[in-house]
Design a protein that fits this description.
single chain, alpha/beta, TIM Barrel, seven-stranded mixed β-sheet, two-stranded antiparallel ribbon, disordered N terminus
Length: 227
């Protein structure tokens, strides 16, 4: 998927936005997956917590950092690379910004991801994430088997994307990152099967309510983006 165009000059891009006491960074509108449960796929809805996250173009690291400085880092519990696109599609800017965040004293940097960065890049990118200062990843495992994954998360890699996601989770665990794997509570999925699949990889597990996907929840912000 390429960046989704919106009319030029219609609105400034939202690149850094606060939800609760965290700051979220939006690097891209592009995804590797076309998940059937994603609000932008289902109903064309790009709004999270009142912020329209559609991007006309891919922003540079300096542009994102300018918004980070405007919104502010003081008092943030964490900074999260997320949005309604896949942040590791912009791996260079993500690594650059992570280094800037850590240099600025941010204690926790997290990535919400589909876990397919290593498959897309053709190498294990986890050591690069660790070296830049990433502390945690939330990985969208989405299913307990490859056939179900390919059905609910259509992608150009087909069923092998699921094993690549599992390998990414294992590498993150081995690299010492805090790793959570999530599945969306879709009809037909069994929570216990998905939990077992995540925990077998050494990750903690999150069962994400389908009707709250990517939306601000009562009592605090949604901790993840989408797929």
């Amino acid at each position: 998927m390429t960046e989704v165009a919106v009319p030029a000059g219609s609105r400034p891009p939202v690149l850094a936005y606060p939800l609760g006491d965290a700051l979220y960074l939006n690097l891209t509108s592009a995804c590797t997956l076309a998940c059937t449960f994603c609000p932008k796929i289902r109903v064309g809805d790009w709004v999270v917590g009142g912020f329209d996250l559609r991007l006309e173009r891919a922003p540079g690291a300096d542009e994102v950092w300018s918004q980070v400085e405007k919104v502010g880092l003081t008092g943030r519990s964490e900074v999260v690379f997320t949005g309604l696109g896949e942040p590791t599609r912009r791996l260079g800017p993500l690594l650059d910004l992570t280094r800037r965040l850590k240099a600025a004293g941010v204690r926790r940097v997290r990535i919400d991801t589909d876990g397919l960065a290593s498959l897309r890049e053709g190498r294990d990118v986890v050591p690069e994430l660790v070296a830049a200062g990433v502390d945690a990843v939330s990985v969208s495992l989405n299913a307990a088997d490859s056939v179900t994954y390919a059905r609910i998360c259509p992608n150009r890699f087909g069923e092998r994307a699921y094993e690549a996601c599992r390998g990414f989770i294992r590498s993150c665990v081995g690299g010492g990152l805090e790793v959570a794997a999530s599945c969306v509570a879709l009809p037909g999925l069994r929570e216990e099967d998905c939990r077992a699949a995540a925990e077998a990889l050494g990750a903690s597990f999150r069962w994400r309510p389908y009707d709250r996907l990517g939306r601000l929840q009562e009592g605090g912000p949604s901790p993840g983006n989408r797929a």
